[in-house]
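hiii so my PI (J.) wants the whole complex modelled not just the main chain, which honestly fair. so below is everything: four entries, each one labled with what it is. i double checked the lines twice but i was tired so who knows lol
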Amino acid sequence: MEIQISRESTIPLHLQLLNQLRHRILSGHWPPGSRLPSETMLQRRLGISRSTVRQALHRAESEGLIERVPGKGTFVARQPGGPPNSRLIGYITFDFLSDFQRQLLRGAEDRARSRGYRILFCNSNRDVAEEDRLLEQLLADQVRGILIWPALDNRPSRRLFHLAQQCRVPLVLMDRTLPGLRCDHVSSDNYGGAYAAVSHLIELGHRRIAFLSRPILQLEPVAERLRGYRAALQEAGLSPLEPWLLGAPGREMDVGYALHTYHAASSQEIQELMRRLDRPDRPTAIFAMNDLMATQALKAAALVGLQVPEDLSLVGFDDMDIARHLEVPLTTVAQDTFALGQRAAEFLVERLEGYPGPPRREVLPTQLRIRASTGPARAVERTRAPGPLVEKAQCTPCQGFTNS
Amino acid sequence: MEIQISRESTIPLHLQLLNQLRHRILSGHWPPGSRLPSETMLQRRLGISRSTVRQALHRAESEGLIERVPGKGTFVARQPGGPPNSRLIGYITFDFLSDFQRQLLRGAEDRARSRGYRILFCNSNRDVAEEDRLLEQLLADQVRGILIWPALDNRPSRRLFHLAQQCRVPLVLMDRTLPGLRCDHVSSDNYGGAYAAVSHLIELGHRRIAFLSRPILQLEPVAERLRGYRAALQEAGLSPLEPWLLGAPGREMDVGYALHTYHAASSQEIQELMRRLDRPDRPTAIFAMNDLMATQALKAAALVGLQVPEDLSLVGFDDMDIARHLEVPLTTVAQDTFALGQRAAEFLVERLEGYPGPPRREVLPTQLRIRASTGPARAVERTRAPGPLVEKAQCTPCQGFTNS
DNA sequence: GGATGGTACCTGTACGTACAGGTTGATCCC
DNA sequence: GGGATCAACCTGTACGTACAGGTACCATCC
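here's the output for the full assembly
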């Protein structure tokens, strides 16, 4: 198990060395008090200059990992864990309005606590400037790593990119990625969940299936759901419809407003839905971006006299609490948000213990929960537009998990 | 007062520079946030190499004296002198399963952040031993104060009592009190909310009103709701019924289990409810301890053929998300949990800033939200058992607030 | 007036050299 | 055998160069 340094990596040489030293020391591979190879030894073995080796060693020393004795050599510190108050993990979320976020935090806290870390919780409230300030403060609070569900903004000026590049503290992105930000990432299988949901509808004989969303298609999870919707339809030889976008338009640089209306049920949107449902060429099924929008569709359907699922099938996403308590219990795609948080914390702790590899990505399975809001398409329509039936709703293999 | 470097000194050049930087910064001669001369500037002015300058600056950085920003320059740290006065607040909750707890945390974080503090979030998972460990760790993490929603247990051995007695860090209790624990406390007006809810039912002509709960009457908030229920009935000259307790019995020392079943809807309980509702002497209205139990009552009513609100009125508590999305939108009592968290953080910050007085208690108003699940009692029953009508539903005066 | 591009400046990264002064252990001399 | 000596090796100090990539500012052009 030699130390490996890659010239191709974007991570600076001295940080590569530092990370691997940290890994060996914290994992116990090099026991406390043992002697490290000398600077010239490392220099020769790794093919880098002594200055670079020294840079890594100095950092390791200031982290309390090693002790250097002039004339004698370099040694693993007796207590390589460092000062006791440094077992903090920063946690930043762009928002804390939904149950989804509660589950995520609960999962992260659960796993962090079991590994001896505590969570420093911050809410950026969709404000990138606030997020920058919070990142700074977390560094000042001496956090060892940061879990972040970032606000939306790709400007490279934001502190997040700088941190990711510097590699001073490891980062783990939750739920969404940002273009150009290279670090560990966990998310749910939004694509697979949408694919399974729409396949389920196709299997029931539906041919005209609408995708209902707010105008926030640039959000990665929503984009993935749209992709899954389209893929399922196209593989069945059906045509995706133009997405139904309700609510205020999503502005390029100010997604904050779109997110703000994310949870608000405005009557204007119900009106618009009623108009779209009260037409002869209406779809026979709707796949909604989330349960709240599905709820709005349910209301609009009732108002124009459509029965669910007899006249209109509905599928939501997220399996929120309300899904099973609606008048017509909602078929929906569940995410294991708790596990998502746990996995994020695991990724981070592994980095803190020195895991050296390139950025990892984990996509957790979603699960289609079939309830009363989906049923067979009307026989009339089935005979009118006979298409190939998909044999079985596909979904990433999933084990049972609950939302609470 | 120029920086002087002596080649004759036995002190290394970079240490000479570091010492003078440290002096200037800690003495306030260079104020926090101000900019240091650039590396090349120092190099020229002092006649030493850039490497040597960098050596000093790196050390100053790891001492927390300065902050370096690529592309911009080097700056005196905002808090030079290290982190002796950390701005961390510990937050312990006994549980993190409901939206209520999310709102509470969100409120506390919001106010703490605006006052310059960060929240160190921990979940004791209803385990008093774990809570003890977490309290210890928070102290080791140098928190300045602690917000806690404690697990249930009155044994004076628990760490919490020691802390309150020692007064090393201020404590604020949230939602519930513990007998014998003297410290600041915030809660909702459970009594007033229940009183308003039951008064609303009485005003509608109901005479037989049941109190539906799980066997956890020893929980202070539940006890307060029961007290409000009884007071409203008695003041109207009516008799409270024996509480309907559904689910596993609440054991004295192990409330964990009762809380565990808190959110589970078991069909056994529905069966029991159906039995109780399918009798001639059934109540005409039910005041449920929370919305989830009200939901169960709604199901049971439908199963025995009772219409809500025509045959049975229902009131819940908490105004959870599901309340307004139920088949029959639920009349319920809303708590301003966000404000509760804010107030708790305010209490704590005031203590941190030196507020000296005795323990304070704040009870935040609740708000009755009348929806479709409550209606007038049947004329038959009104004539059968005419009683004095209460003039107006009383409630602590409240301003509008939302749950999201 | 506002986007655009150039330029100066800043820190980060990485390489190299040279010498000082301490520790260690083998060797040599008395 | 015991002490002095020396070479090998270690880290510390100090110098130098070169380039990359970011920020900030200003002049320019449309």
